[in-house]
Amino acid sequence: MDEIVQAHKAAVAGKRPVWLLWSLATIVLWGAWGLVSKVASDGASVYMNQLLYTAGLTPLLIFVAWTVGRQSQRDKTVSQRDETAIRRNRRKGAFWAFLTGILGGLGNIAFFVALGKGGEASIVAPVTALFPMVTVLLAVVFLRERLRWTQWTGLALAFAAIYLLSA
Amino acid sequence: MHVWLWFAILALVLWGITGVTQKLSTNSISSERSFLWFCWAMVALSVGVLVFVRPHDWGLRGVVVASAVAGGALNGMGAWTSFRALESGGKASVVISLISLYPLLTVGLAVVLLGERLTTTQLMGALLAIAAAILLSLETPPKAEA
């Protein structure tokens, strides 16, 4: 909260904290995404929706590929020993990121089905936004992370929310 | 329970798993590189859909095509701006809690632009869900001792 107050003071003083602007942009982009997904799901099949979704993602893919390409050029000055370790790390990271994309895409398909089968955007968006509850539970089991009371409360609220939204 | 809710929960579970796999990925590579592989996987999945499912509803209305394409662009750019927020010095606990508010905007837009109506119970559920998402997104302390 202090950070947000400081950010507000900085904004008033004419120095807008960059992270706050990026965060607000994220809210607008993701908030609008829920809305357009409903419009798309009412008019297109789930699979066509996924194809068009990927088409929309492509310009960003090209931009990020260009950024990563430039980064790789700068990083070329490492020794051969370092390079082997970096390559091993990159393969591992790429595997998990690729799996993230596949699971994320399947999640998208389920999201489009939920919207296409009569789920309203105003309910499906809040339900699916509860995905951190699964992340938190998996992080406890597989990454041995500990939960704080805030997260336990969040879990309880999440279950209560799903119950109320299913009414 | 409604069929659509089961699919919403399935999306929640799949996206929840990505929270862990994404972390495992960014432990080894940069967020840009991780995002790039994420996008390649989306492309691979779409190629799979094109080859194996062969959707045949190509004659879609312009507004539907525009909305679906915009969906991919908005979601992708949102992921990118969230990385930028974290890299620009925002504390993860503040940034992620703040961006967890995005369903509020979806609810507002859906009510105003799509004419959706929530019952009091559903409105309470939606507000609880947003509060839960914020609480769940707060940073966890370091790993427990083995």
Description:
The complex is a heterodimer of chains A (167) and B (146). By secondary structure, chain A is mainly alpha-helical. In chain A, 83% of the residues lie in helices and 0% in strands. Chain A is built from seven helices and no strands. Chain A has helices spanning 2-12, 18-43, 46-74, 80-116, 121-128, 132-142, 149-165. In chain A, helix 2 (18-43) crosses helix 4. Chain A is globular. The two termini of chain A are 34 Å apart. The mean pLDDT of chain A is 86. Chain B is mostly helical. In chain B, 76% of the residues lie in helices and 0% in strands. Chain B is built from six helices and no strands. In chain B, helix 4 (92-99) packs antiparallel against helix 6. The radius of gyration of chain B is 18 Å and the shape is globular. The relative contact order of chain B is 0.05. The model of chain B has no long low-confidence stretch (mean pLDDT 87). Chains A and B meet through helix 2, helix 3, helix 4, helix 5 and helix 6 of A and helix 1, helix 2, helix 3, helix 4 and helix 5 of B.
